[in-house]
Each structure stands twice: as structure tokens, then as C-alpha cells.
Structure to design on (376 residues):
């Protein structure tokens, strides 16, 4: 090496070139029609939502402050928002996996419901509370996964054996599952807590402490639970499966052309049944995490529309697991802020739902506009 030439000069130049290239990619991405149209759609939806809040007579400034406080105002609020996003992400990932095979799973709400029921039953009556090595919550989560997978598998069997469209079957199974939850918390023979007096609520007993999901931070004031880590691992796994694995190829082949897939030796029935069962298992896991990680008591309506919000997250993700994560975080914080806005600023809950709907519609419109421009 010549005298006076630093040994790391070549490495420094390479790093500078790499940094410049990454900066250029980021600038191109930020200037892309997809990003611009999405940002414009969100801005329009927010402006329309603020106008709607003003029309209700609420103080817009107070409502915005309440929203920000509910979503980001404290470590607890941020953790609660991320926990909500975890459940939404799991439902969305299941939707994206089924969608790769051209299957539309709208059964997230029902799959959450049966997953929550199974997790509650296992935690209360499965004798797991005293088990070591985390089995006290792993086994109830496993029960939730199996229940959700079974619920999704029913739709697969109906499609394969009776030709029932999965949109119809999964939607109707939602209502069956919701009423099963209602029945289970109304009957002492099932999951209802013993009635000690007339004011006893129709809900289950609280699950034992060992069956509750451990908090990652160790601080109840920042209640991020281990479900977040599980969801992140599964998100990476499914992203790899969809893009790199043989099963991902089968899903894509069945989704693009079932006839050609059959002629190539791919089992159409096996792929469809597995896709719907796996999607259901993700919904069931979301229900188990909601029950073991946040609510601790099964009650009628505990799923609170998470299945339908997760469906929207999956739709807006456009087949991308990364898009699911981004959408789930967005809706998780939106839900937290909306709840606080209703409580503090007296903004009617219907207005919050309308704002969410505006965001969904404008984002979907932006996606359609972007695709139309690309096709042209």
C-alpha cells in the first residue's frame, strides 16, 4: 500500500457510495405514486373526520388532543396500541396467506371468538396453571390455534365438498361463533362464572395468573406482552413461506390458475383446505392473545370487531406481510385514540367508526387510482 494512503480509504468510499444509493432509493420511494396517493388519501380522510367532529358540536382541538393522548400520550397508551395492533396483524397475515390462493377469508371475527373460548376453557379447566416452562400459557394458546384452524377448516371442507363460496361460509361462521360465545358465558354448565347473587355478570371467571401472557418489560405500566414477539416471528416466517417456499408457490399457482395447478400435480383440495385452516389458526391465535394478554375474562362481544378490522388490514396490505404490519399499527393506534376521544371529548363512537371508514375508503380509492395509472 502506498505511503500516506489510509488503509480504510477504499472502505470509506464504498460506504459513502452505499449510503448515497440508499438515500436515492428512499427519495424515489417517497416520490412514488403509491406513497404520494396514500399520504393524500390519509390527509383527506383526516380533514373530513375533523370536519365531521366539528359538525357534532365537539371541540376539535379537545378531540385531537384526546386522540393523541389516547394513542401516544404515555408509555401505557403506546403499549396498549401495539397490543391491539398485534391481534390485528395476526388476522391480517391469515387473510394475506389465504388471498395468495385467491381465497377470501372474512371469518376473522368468528375465528377470534372460538380462539378466545378455547383459550379460556384451557386456562380455567385444563389444569395448566401449575405447569412449568411457560406451558401454562402455551397450551391455552395452542388450544386457541387449533380452534381457529378448525373453524377455518370448516369453510375449506364446505368449499371443496359442497362448492360453497368461502366468503359466504366464513361470514356465516362468524355469527355462529359470536353466538357460541354468548351461549358459553350465559350457561354455568359451560364457561359462565357461578352466580353468587343477582348482579353476577354473564362472563367467565378470571383466568389464573400463571396462564396470563408474560409482560416483556416486566412493568405493568408498560404492558407489552410476549404476544408481540410471537406475532413478529410468525410475520417473518409467513413472509418467507409466501416468497421462498414450495408451499408459497403452490398457493400462488392455485390462486392464478387452479386447472393448470391440478395438471402440474398440485393438490387443489389440499392447498385450499390448508390455506383456510392456517388463516383460521391465525385468527384463533389472535383471540387467544386478546384473552390471555389483555382481557383475562371471556364475555359476550369480547372480540369487539377486531376480526373485521383485521380483514381491512389484510385487504389494504395488497398481499404484503410488511403492509399488514404497517396497517395493523395504524389501526391499533387509531383504535386507541378513538376510544380516548370518545371518553374524554364526548365524540360519539359512530363518528369514530365513520372516520375509520373514510380512511379505508380513501386508501382503497388511492390504491385503485395507482393501479389504473400503472396499467395506462
Amino acid at each position: 500500500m502506498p505511503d500516506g494512503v489510509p488503509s480504510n480509504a477504499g472502505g470509506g468510499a464504498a460506504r459513502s457510495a452505499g449510503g448515497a444509493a440508499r438515500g436515492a432509493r428512499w427519495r424515489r420511494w417517497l416520490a412514488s405514486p403509491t406513497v404520494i396517493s396514500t399520504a393524500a388519501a390519509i390527509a383527506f380522510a383526516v380533514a373530513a373526520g375533523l370536519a365531521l367532529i366539528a359538525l357534532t358540536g365537539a371541540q376539535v382541538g379537545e378531540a385531537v388532543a384526546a386522540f393523541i393522548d389516547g394513542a401516544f400520550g404515555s408509555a401505557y397508551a403506546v403499549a396498549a396500541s401495539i397490543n391491539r395492533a398485534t391481534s390485528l396483524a395476526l388476522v391480517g397475515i391469515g387473510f394475506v396467506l389465504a388471498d395468495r390462493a385467491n381465497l377470501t377469508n372474512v371469518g376473522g371475527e368468528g375465528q377470534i371468538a372460538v380462539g378466545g373460548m378455547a383459550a379460556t376453557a384451557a386456562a380455567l379447566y385444563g389444569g395448566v396453571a401449575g405447569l412449568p416452562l411457560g406451558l401454562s400459557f402455551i397450551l391455552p394458546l395452542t388450544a386457541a390455534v387449533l380452534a381457529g384452524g378448525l373453524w377455518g377448516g370448516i369453510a375449506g371442507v364446505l368449499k371443496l365438498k359442497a362448492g360453497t363460496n368461502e366468503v359466504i361460509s366464513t361470514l356465516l361462521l362468524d355469527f355462529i361463533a359470536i353466538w357460541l360465545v354468548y351461549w358459553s358465558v350465559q350457561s354455568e354448565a359451560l364457561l359462565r362464572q357461578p352466580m353468587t347473587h343477582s348482579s353476577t355478570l354473564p362472563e367467565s371467571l378470571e383466568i389464573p395468573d400463571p396462564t396470563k401472557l408474560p409482560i416483556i418489560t416486566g412493568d405493568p405500566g408498560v404492558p407489552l406482552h410476549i404476544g408481540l414477539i410471537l406475532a413478529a416471528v410468525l410475520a417473518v416466517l409467513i413472509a418467507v413461506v409466501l416468497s421462498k417456499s414450495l408451499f408459497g408457490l403452490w398457493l400462488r399457482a392455485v390462486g392464478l390458475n387452479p386447472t393448470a395447478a391440478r395438471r402440474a400435480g398440485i393438490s387443489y383440495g389440499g392447498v385450499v383446505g390448508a390455506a383456510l385452516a392456517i388463516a383460521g389458526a391465525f385468527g384463533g391465535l389472535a383471540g387467544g392473545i386478546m384473552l390471555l394478554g389483555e382481557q383475562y375474562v371471556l364475555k359476550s362481544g369480547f372480540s369487539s370487531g377486531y376480526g373485521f378490522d383485521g380483514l381491512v388490514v389484510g385487504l389494504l396490505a395488497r398481499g404484503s406481510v410488511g403492509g399488514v404490519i404497517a396497517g395493523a399499527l395504524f389501526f391499533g393506534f387509531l383504535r386507541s385514540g378513538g376510544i380516548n376521544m370518545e371518553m374524554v371529548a364526548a365524540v360519539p363512537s359512530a363518528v369514530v367508526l365513520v372516520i375509520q371508514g373514510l380512511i379505508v375508503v380513501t386508501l382503497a380509492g388511492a390504491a385503485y387510482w395507482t393501479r389504473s395509472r400503472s396499467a395506462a
Remarks:
- Residues 58-193+201-375 form a domain with the ABC transporter involved in vitamin B12 uptake, BtuC fold (CATH 1.10.3470).
- The CA atoms of residues 265 and 294 lie 45 Å apart.
